[in-house]
Hints:
The chain is an alpha+beta fold. It contains three helices and ten strands, in the order E-E-E-E-E-E-E-H-E-E-E-H-H. A four-stranded mixed β-sheet has the order 7-4-9-8, with helices on both faces. Helix 2 runs antiparallel to helix 3. The longest helix is centred in the last third of the chain and has 14 residues, at 168-181.
Amino acid sequence: MQQKATRLTETRISGEVAYDGKFLKVERDLIQLPDGKQTHREFIRHPGAVVIIPLLDDGRVLMERQFRYPNAQEFIEFPAGKIDPGEDWLECAKRELKEETGYTATDWQFVCTIHNAIAYSDEHLELYLARGLTAGEAKLDEGEFLECFTVTVPELLDLVRTGQITDVKTIIGSFWLEKIVAGQWEPPR
């Protein structure tokens, strides 16, 4: 999405790839500030990801517990995964839900896009609500380990309130789910 230039716009003069990894790239650009001065910006290029909010027919929510190496701890989160180059976001969401949990869904609804680290990354996360779930066998990627479990929406919100869920995508998705289930918010069509 191309943004219209404003009096706050910073303009790229030149740049280089500072790190080119298998998953992430770090870029370092020379930019011109709105006042004409120049400075550098370093940021992470990320391919984007999908987040699935899996709502079972009984009103419970399917969650994951996974160890996240950068923070050296287990996190409770919604199923999620990286968008492959050229991959349709909804197809990615369907693939990730099946791979990580074994579940498939008959009803998919786009919820919103979030940008979780706007100061140092271009990562975007596409949130989808999945309903009409049917259990199946998970097909985790090699080297991927996680546990699935279910909670009610009030239990989910209590995990957020008590700090047991600190993952930003899961917190935002939980608040959206609360509003959707209560009939207060309708995701965009």
